Amino acid sequence: MEMTRGINSPGKNVAGRKINWMSQELILLYITAAFFIIFALTADGFFSVNNIFTILRSMSIIAIIGLGITFVITAGEIDLSIGTVPALGGCLLAVLLVKGIPLPLTILITLCAVVVIGFINGLIVVKARIPSIIITLATYMIAQGIAYIISNQAPVIVTNAPFLNLFGSSFFGFPLIVFWMLFFTVVSYLLMYKTKFGVNLAYIGENRSAAYYAGINVNTVIIIAFIICSTFSLMGGMLGVAQAANATPWMITPDLMTAIAATLIGGTSLAGGKGNILGTITGAFFLTMLSNGLLILGVDQWVLYLINGVIIILALSYSYSRK
Amino acid sequence: MEALTRYFGDSRKWKDGMIYIAIVAIVLIFSLLVPNFFSPENWRAILTSMVLVTVLAIGITFVLTAGEIDISLGAVLSVTPTIFAVLLGKGMPFFLALVIGLAATLLLGFLNGFVTIKLGVPSFITTLGTMGIGMGLSRIVANNTPVVVRDDTVQLLFGGELLGMPKIVVWMFVLIVLSYILLHKTRYGRNLHNVGDNREAAHLYGIHVTGTVIIAFVIASFFAFFAGMLEVARSFYASPGIGEPLMLNAIVASVIGGTALTGGKGSIIGAFVGALFLTIISNALFSLGLPPWISNIIIGSVIILILTTSGLMDKRKHELGRI
Questions:
Q1: Taking the CB of residue B169, how many other CB atoms lie within 10 A of it?
Q2: Transmembrane segments in this chain: where (chain A) (predicted)?
Q3: Are A143 and A81 within 8 A, CB to CB?
């Protein structure tokens, strides 16, 4: 099933700097542009500064979580715990803030908690060699349970002004949540393409045995990928809390599949070895813009499920069937 | 490979035994804690509430045995019931409405198999897409509200009791027996195991790999259909979205029951025992007045415990490396 991967991966400029104009990420860009124009012409109020910012704001959390899972998928693994780790991080943060613990310490404690989750995910995956889908499903359930317990199954209101200012407010009309998304995009881009870690990660996803024999510390790199993923999830959770000014144990869970879908239609291959940071951002923008535009046109929310499903199948059938 | 397995001892058998040890331990603990745990009423409640998860878990077991995954079944579950209920409401005869509804569900199963095996899209992505289609389709058909189904034939077939047992429980056991025969006693079942174990070898051996995998997906969607109809008989409603929360539990039931996520090894009895295990935990927590989300923590921990232990003991996998 995965034997052909990586040999002729589209979009990889192996021979010279020739750009593949029909690569998956560029096709996604064309489709996004096409839909953008269609919506701008047909949907009243779609093409306005206000609405563009609405789209950017609502895509931010999905994009950041999607960036995190891009690292894990590049290693050839998957992380489902991103469905509940944001809620766990958010609830923990809110409860600690309510108890009056200073913001830096709160963030540090929360960060430690999610790093532990990522570490456990990675450690079990590399040591016990169990498919990551089932291990992260287990941590998904555990994180969900803990989130419900610490929040006592009710929204935890956050009034901490520095926190809300830092993550939820605007700076001269520019929403900070969008700034954080851009910040994490740059960080991910540098991590993925400009560091030794990123290069090693891609090698591991491409061919784990070869990476091992080339002297790469496979286990450590994979564990770090999982830790990055849960850290990004925490960031998504914190932004979610700052947006709503409260933390709930069920927040962001429905975005799990959207984040994974954004990553996959953005050109990151589920087989590993091919992470695409800008593709993930484009994917998140596309999915959010689609729901925004269709909602303005009066399409019911649940019709979007169907459309999203069809798009996922069409987009990926296209890219996989050409290999 | 076989020689290696023999050399290192067949830890698989031991691994399969763990779920039975875990279930006996859990039953013992809960029988001490929960009053009337062994009462017929309580077991009746357990059996009745495990029906849907069991039927879905059986369906997933076929797909997992083929070395694929299907995360769409929970969403697809509502497709037939909603189509059936709406057509019935429009005055269509029972049989015709059922066949049209069933055809839609089987078509989604076929789509899963076709896109996965013919176009080479990883089944996780394919079924993520059909999950969206199922979620959207059932909500569109039913206009996002439960549709009442008061049909004598449905109740005659699936409702009420038989020999003092709710008919849906009887159906569950019938389906267990039939699927057991199909997976373990027929040529198709044997082929499916071979395909999941080593697709190349199965192909060289003369097995029609494409057909076998597509049929596995269609079988899985058939079980989703059956689960949906049993739910209609139980609740008198065709509700869109009712099966979606069951999906993760069904996968968990199948996997802790000994079906390998890597393919080639399926267990119907294991799926049943896994579902029983999950249901006993939530039943006991409910009886003890404990919040339901604690069960998530227990189940998640049990998954990690069982799979990690067996993964660490599986020396053969360590010897041969990953993949």
A1: 20
A2: 27-49, 55-73, 80-101, 107-126, 133-151, 171-191, 212-235, 247-265, 277-296, 302-320
A3: yes
Question: Tokens 């047992």 identify what position?
Answer: B165
Q: How many Cα atoms occupy the beta-carbon half-sphere of B141 within 13 Å?
A: 29
8 Å CB contact between A282 and A27: no
DSSP state of B238: E
For domain B11-31+38-314, the CATH architecture is: Orthogonal Bundle (1.10)
**Do the chains contact at A129 and B248, CB–CB below 8 Å?**
no
Helix (H) / strand (E) element for A98: namely helix A85-98
Of B69, B136, B262, the CB nearest to A302: B136
How far apart CA B279 and CA B246 sit, in angstroms, is 12
Q: What angle do CA A171, A177, A178 make, to 5 degrees?
A: 85
Facing A309 at nearest CB: one of B132, B248, B323: B132
Say if residues A296 and A43 touch (Cβ distance below 8 Å). Answer: yes
Q: Which residues of B touch A308 (CB under 8 A)?
A: 132, 136
Contacts of A142 in chain B (CB under 8 A): 296-297, 300-301
Q: What secondary structure does DSSP assign to B61-94, as a single string?
A: HHHHHTT-----HHHHTTHHHHHHHHHHHTT--H
Helix (H, G, I), strand (E, B) or coil at A300: coil
Residue B9 pLDDT exceeds 60: no
Most B-contacting residue of A79, A141, A206, A294 (CB-CB within 10 A), to test interface? A141
pLDDT band at A148 (very low <50, low <70, confident <90, very high): very high
3-state secondary structure (DSSP) of residue A169 = coil
A259 near A66, Cβ under 8 Å?
Answer: yes
Candidates A261, A307, A316; nearest CB to B121: A316
SS3 track for B96-115? HHHHHHHHHHHHHHHHHHHH
Give the CB-side neighbour count of residue A55, counting CA atoms within 13 A.
25
CA B154 to chain CA centroid, Å, is 22
* Token output for A180: 């954080």
What residues contact B90, with CB distance under 8 A and at least 6 apart?
Answer: none
Give chain B positions within 8 Å (CB) of A138: 299-301, 303-304, 307
Reference B101, options B135, B78, B74; nearest CA is B78
Average pLDDT of chain A to the nearest whole number? 88
pLDDT score of B156? 82
Asked if B300 and A141 come within 8 Å (Cβ–Cβ), the reply is yes
Q: What is the pLDDT of residue B20?
A: 78
Phi, psi dihedral angles at A219 (to 5 degrees): -60, -45
Quick one: B91 exposed, middle or buried, by C-beta within 10 A (0-12, 13-18, 19+)?
Answer: exposed
**CB pair distance less than 8 Å for A320 and B120:** yes
Level-2 CATH architecture, domain A46-321? Orthogonal Bundle (1.10)
CB contacts, 8 Å: A309 with chain B: 128-136
- Give me the residue label for tokens 């009745």: B48
Do residues A267 and A24 make contact, with C-beta atoms less than 8 angstroms apart? yes
Q: How far is A164 from chain B (nearest CA, A)?
A: 29
Q: Which residues of A touch B291 (CB under 8 A)?
A: 148-149, 153
Confidence at residue B215, expressed as pLDDT on a 0 to 100 scale: 96
Tell me what percent of chain A is helix, strand and coil, each rounded to the nearest 5: 70, 0, 25
Q: Where are the domains of chain B?
A: 11-31+38-314
What sign for the dihedral angle of Cα A231, A237, A240, A241?
A: negative
Q: Which residue has the tokens 């006693």?
A: B185
3-state helix, strand, coil in chain B (%, to 5): 75, 0, 25
Amino acid at A170: S
Instruction: Quickly count: other Cβ atoms within 10 Å of residue A301's Cβ.
Output: 12
